[in-house]
Amino acid sequence: MLQSVEAQTLSGQALPQPGIEDFCSHYFGLGIEVKLQRDGKVFQPSKAGLAFGEYLLSNVTIEEKMGDILEIGTGSGALAILLAIAGARNVVATDINQHIIDVARANYGIAQRDFRTLQGDRSPNVRFLVSNLFDSREFEDRRFDLIFFNPPGWRTPDNPELFRTICEDSYYSMFEGDQTVIRFLQKVGHYLKPNGRVLIGLNSIVGIQSVIAAYKEWEAKHAFWEFDFTIRQKNALELMLYNDHWKQNSDLIRNQLLLWKQRGLSHFSHHNDHSEWFYEITEIQNIT
Predict the structure, then answer these.
(1) How far is CA 53 from CA 74, 81, 165, 201, 224, in A?
(2) Contact present, 37 and 277 (Cβ < 8 Å)
(3) pTM for the whole structure
(4) Which end of the chain is more exposed for a tag (fewer CB within 10 A), N or C?
(5) CATH for the stretch 28-286
């Protein structure tokens, strides 16, 4: 999710505004710092995305680095670039439109000078493709050792007024996360190698149990695989309103969150005017 210059916490506390530089840098560890172009139409790594990157850096196996890795929803390309610098040999990264992919490719070009630090003279094979999940024909005969995805984190609003409000905003893609994750789960099994695995970052606001239940109902009728879900890391992060449009509708957003929580569809904590949600890095494996 994009950290906007106008972001504030749910309690109304303003966040520090960044400077006017054209680039930002993110340090993940092992001496790896990824430099990215600032672009208002492309999501930059949030605290959740940075946590996912740090987890990938410490948990992707040598076998996966030597094999084939796919990232769905690459955004700025930061995590695909991170793995390439860290030694992954074959990485494919996708997103839904050409502008996002162009920015990710440009960021990859910026990072190429860092490859020799960890990989000697060998350059990785990194490709950026336009695709909505697995819709690209490039995937027809492809299988991967690791597929990872940091999906939209919010459920589809059931409050029509809130839904219309967010539809007018560039952050609309953050919504419908529940439906996006279900569609991803229904398709991803076709693209895993026999011992491959999935890593996905789930937002506790998306309704994790209801998403898994809906998927499992589909799986029992249609899939030739059976997925097991294991949480690998849980991060508590402050819930934020991202711009003036969200701030003006903060009551609608709060009410929607409370409705979800009352129905057991979302989980977050609220203490001293601060709300926290939970970012859950989850491993998915085929156990058939």
Answers:
(1) 12, 10, 32, 10, 31
(2) no
(3) 0.87
(4) C
(5) 3.40.50.150
